[in-house]
Write a structure and sequence with these properties.
Blueprint: H1 4-9, H2 14-23, H3 39-49, H4 69-76, E1 84-86, E2 104-107, E3 118-121, E4 131-133, E5 153-154, E6 157-158, E7 170-178, H5 179-183, E8 193-194, H6 196-206, E9 215-219, H7 222-229, E10 240-241, H8 246-252, E11 256-259, H9 276-285, E12 288-291, H10 296-305, E13 309-314, E14 324-326, E15 330-332
Parallel strand pairs: 7-9, 8-10, 9-11, 11-12
Antiparallel strand pairs: 1-15, 2-3, 4-12, 4-14, 5-6, 7-13, 13-15
Helix pairs in contact: 2-8, 3-9
């Protein structure tokens, strides 16, 4: 891997990135199936979309740098009706097939105490709870975002790029990409990839254009399916964003990418890389990721109002050295 500054300076132009994405082997074949990518394909993509050195060799905020004061003002101007929508399921202490490590809530106040108090323990990474990933969460070939060494993460936490670097929060324009609505289905089936072509088709249908500093939320209908059939596991198969969509998001300079699943389509179809979308997005692009958001009420509200952009806000808990934070993001129309 190149040095941080060299990696960014040596990038091809964004036009070349888009041309590469259009011809890469990740594009669907004539029968609609995605061919298997190799680790070499991921190496090439990693270099082409990398943001290493873009905001300085010591940067630990990644694409959060794309959210400018002007972008926040643009987002605030989208608040018209004053309608606020949570993008999180309630955290549950009930074990289920899709909640194998449930929240532990222990009441600590003694009987007769004038106050109630508790302690919480939660394993927030995985496929259950809405959370944001810090930039130290993913690494590739021994390096995290911006070339920081993977050894910076130890039993005491991340020495670099922990979630505390996101403590000022995210406030920007949010855009919902409703893929089930685009395809005329209630939810996507396991293994269904969300491609760059799906994102562009939704832009045309919804009359929105993704731009610099935007928060892009991709709905697969995961929580609608759960409401329909009950708890089910995503481990063996899940819809999600295919890694081949990342060059488009890099071209548009997206600040945050959120989904209602664990981001990656499962199976990912990449030989030798387990979670390629996570890996390239976080370690390569420094792209902030939100997993397991509940986008059902948001989709209903957007459909009713006839607009798919809104003010998005979220504030991670700034635990020094943590690899992320459970969050309750808010969309306001």
């Amino acid at each position: 891997m190149k040095s941080r500054s060299a990696a960014f300076v040596s990038l091809v132009s964004l036009a070349a990135v888009c041309a590469w994405a259009a011809t890469a082997s990740a594009q669907p074949s004539s029968d609609g199936a995605l061919p298997t990518l190799t680790a070499a394909d991921i190496d090439e993509m990693f270099e082409r979309v990398s943001n290493w050195g873009r905001w300085g060799d010591d940067d630990q905020r990644g694409t959060l740098n794309l959210i400018t004061p002007e972008k926040r003002r643009q987002a605030a101007a989208l608040v018209r009706e004053g309608i606020s929508v949570s993008l999180s399921q309630d955290l549950s202490s009930v074990e289920a097939v899709d909640n194998t490590m449930p929240l532990e809530l222990v009441m600590t106040a003694q009987p007769g105490s004038p106050v109630a108090m508790d302690e919480l323990r939660i394993f927030y990474h995985g496929l259950t709870y809405a959370h944001i990933d810090a930039l130290c969460h993913a690494r590739y070939k021994g390096k995290a975002y911006n070339g920081f060494d993977a050894s910076d993460a130890s039993e005491t936490g991340c020495a670099t790029s922990g979630v505390e670097h996101l403590k000022d929060g995210v406030l920007s324009r949010g855009i919902l990409i409703d893929v089930p609505r685009l395809k005329g289905v209630p939810y996507l089936e396991p293994g269904t990839p969300v491609l760059a072509s799906d994102i562009e088709a939704w832009e045309q249908r919804a009359g929105v254009t993704i731009g610099p500093g935007d928060v892009v939320l991709v709905r697969t209908g995961r929580w609608a399916k759960r409401a329909d059939i009950g708890p089910y596991s995503l481990q063996g198969g899940s819809p999600g964003v295919h890694v081949s969509a990342l060059p488009l998001l890099r071209e548009r300079d997206v600040a945050v990418l959120g989904t209602d699943v664990g981001l990656d389509v499962i199976p990912a179809g990449v030989d030798g890389v387990v979670i390629p979308t996570h890996t390239v997005a976080i370690a390569g692009m420094g792209l902030l990721i939100i997993d397991n958001a509940d986008l059902e009420t948001l989709a209903e509200t957007a459909e009713r109002l006839g607009r798919w952009e809104f003010m998005f806000s979220v504030a991670p808990i700034p635990v020094a050295g943590a690899t992320g934070s459970v969050v309750n993001a808010i969309a306001t129309f």
